[in-house]
Amino acid sequence: MYVHLGEDILVRTKDIVAILDKETVKSSQSMKELLESESNKIVPLAKGDFKSIVITVDAVYYSPLASGTLKKRSTKLAIQEF
């Protein structure tokens, strides 16, 4: 199944590695370093400020949707797969 991340972008649930809140990323030095090393894979979906970061196998998405919303969507879809 797929999760809508915003701006007409759908990602397969099995490709999602992590869904992170913006505040969590800002407070973690190791996450900042990870995002800097993966800067060529960043896909900004928010026109303004982003609310969450979704790390997948192929890309890092800056999503305008809250991490809680994305988690609920991915959980519902994962349950429906079975």
UniProtKB/TrEMBL annotation:
Listed InterPro entries: RemA-like
Listed NCBIfam families: MtxRegRemB (NF046065)
Protein name: DUF370 domain-containing protein
Biological source species: Bacillus yapensis
